[in-house]
Amino acid sequence: MDLSTIFINFKFMEISYIVYILRCNDETYYTGYTSNIESRLKVHGNKEVH
Fold first, then answer.
1. Number of other residues whose CB lies within 10 A of the CB of residue 31
2. How many helices and strands in the chain, by DSSP H and E?
3. Which end of the chain has the least Cβ crowding within 10 Å, N or C?
4. For the chain, what are the domain ranges?
5. Residues 1-45: pLDDT tens digits?
6. Distance, CA of 36 to chain centre
7. Using CA atoms, how far apart are residues 31 and 23, in angstroms rounded to an integer?
8. What is the DSSP string of 20-34?
9. Which residues pair with 18 in a beta bridge?
């Protein structure tokens, strides 16, 4: 996974979320959102996301 990532901050019902786009090793893209980007990137880095 290439961490050339785009982050967009937004709020929904007073909770801040980040939208992200990751470029994978196979040149595809993975998008997601989270309220805890550090934890989420760790999960991606450990390849725990399916």
1. 9
2. 1, 3
3. C
4. 2-45
5. 455 555 666 666 677 788 888 888 888 888 888 888 888 888 877
6. 9
7. 9
8. EEEE-TTS-EEEEEE
9. 9, 34
Tokens 């805890």 belong to: 36
**Cβ 22 vs Cβ 1: under 8 Å:** yes
Token readout for 34 is 């989270």
Q: What is the model's pLDDT at position 18?
A: 85
Site of tokens 């786009």: 21
Closest to 1 (Cα-Cα) out of 38, 19, 33, 26: 26
The letter for the amino acid at 34 is T
